[in-house]
Design goal:
418 residues; alpha/beta; Rossmann fold; 2 domains; 7-stranded mixed sheet; 16 helices; 22% strand; globular
């Protein structure tokens, strides 16, 4: 799907020998529109469109042309579609991908195209920017471990939930997001009784539900999208009544606004991430209103999703850096890369800047799922942590010593838990 912005560009395309590259910057939007996160991918597209619409589809004095490349959350498809964007569609910049393991694959692919730029969409695996980072891959959203900050301490100290079993998605983001929660939880003295892992896109959770222990205070659920909805349906059908703790995508607006009653089981569930529906900041309120005004109610979510916010913020960063270099992508985009690296971009979530790995530092909200007067659900902010960095406040050596996120990392006892 291609969108050519502006009549002047369309006319230029019909003129023999016209130098389109001088007037137009071509941007590929790499986004999952199939699989568990299809609703989040659709919101990602909306949010790219919104960011560009707000600047008249111009950046750095150049018209912006976008090409959407659809993926299914798998690394192989993400790489194949990225290659199509570069080799066939001749894009200058890629914004994306959405899912964690896609991000790791795109980090590696970006190293093969050093004269182009990849700006993340919303993928949140730690390794993407922490392990052998790519000089032309930039992530202006927090990663999944950062999103977990504050949640573990909150459930121990405010809820009194000290014995927790976990069910998480068995892939890079699932490990990363759980690590962020577990570091916080274990440091607060919590006990991880059981860790269970389910494949991304799984449809049958009967086996894992049967393995859940009864003698726990709560169950951490680290799944999202249609996986979250399917799990909640089956958990309720099995008679499950445990208190729930949500990973960052468990109670995202794509889940809270899904059809059916299963999501009502999430009322009162604490979760954490970089989005709170009732964030009182003026820049957040202005963004939500712009989102509501830009799309009919039946063509959008009641509030922007975590996925959509990520694509929006990363698009804002691209626009700001292009403005700074006046659209100059010459010499292997070196000026553009330098501008992105040093950028302090104003976003609906406040100012965002990057560390030496080209990874964002920012705020994380602990929220609880609440029922609104009209019967809809939203996340209400109950705590906030600012300036959350990639090492979760640890020294780089201490964070590295802990090990990369996995089925068994972190070691809860080593962090002071049980």
């Amino acid at each position: 799907m291609k969108r050519v912005i502006g009549a002047a560009t369309a006319l230029a395309l019909m003129l023999p020998g016209a130098a389109i590259a001088q007037d137009t910057i071509k941007v590929g939007i790499l986004v999952a529109t199939e699989g568990a996160f299809a609703a989040g991918g659709a919101d990602g597209i909306r949010n790219v469109e919104l960011a560009l619409k707000q600047v008249g589809n111009m950046a750095g004095g150049k018209k912006i042309e976008t090409v959407i490349a659809n993926t299914d959350t798998t690394p192989a498809t993400a790489t194949r579609m990225a290659r199509k964007l570069i080799e066939q569609d001749k894009v200058d910049i890629i914004i994306g991908p959405l899912s964690g393991s896609e991000g790791i694959a795109m980090r590696d692919y970006s190293k093969t195209i050093p004269d182009k730029t990849v700006i993340n969409g919303i993928s949140g695996a730690l390794e993407t920017t922490w392990v052998d980072p790519s000089p032309n891959f930039f992530r202006f959203n927090l990663d999944g471990s950062q999103w977990g900050t504050g949640l573990g301490k909150y459930v121990v100290e405010k809820k009194g939930w000290k014995r927790v079993a976990a069910v998480s998605a068995d892939y890079s983001f699932g490990y990363t997001n759980f690590l962020g929660f577990a570091v916080d939880f274990c440091k607060a003295g919590g006990e991880l009784v059981e860790r269970l892992w389910v494949p991304l896109g799984s449809g049958d959770y009967a086996g894992v539900i049967a393995k859940l222990p009864d003698n726990v205070d709560a169950i951490y659920l680290g799944v999202g999208g249609t996986d979250a909805i399917n799990f909640l349906n089956q958990y309720q059908q099995a008679g499950g009544k445990a208190k729930l703790i949500g990973g960052s995508i468990m109670a995202d607006s794509t889940v809270l606004n899904s059809k059916g009653k299963a999501k009502d089981a999430l009322i009162g569930t604490p979760t954490s991430g970089w989005v709170a529906n009732d964030n009182p900041a003026p820049e957040w309120k202005a963004y939500v209103k712009a989102y509501e005004d830009a799309f009919p109610a039946d063509k959008r979510l009641p509030s922007p999703s975590l996925f959509g916010v990520g694509y929006h913020v990363n698009t804002l960063a691209m626009i700001a850096a292009l403005n700074e270099v006046k659209g100059d992508l010459s010499d292997g985009q070196k000026k553009f890369h330098a501008a992105l690296s040093k950028l302090k971009v104003k976003t609906p979530l406040g100012e965002v800047s990057l560390n030496e790995n080209r990874q964002a530092t920012g705020s994380v909200f602990v929220t609880e799922v609440s029922a609104n007067a009209d019967g809809t659900l939203s996340n209400k902010m109950v705590a906030r942590t600012d300036n959350v960095n990639q090492t979760l406040g640890m020294t780089a050596d201490a964070f590295r010593k802990m090990g990369l996120p996995s089925r068994t990392t972190p070691d809860c006892k080593a962090l002071g838990g049980k």
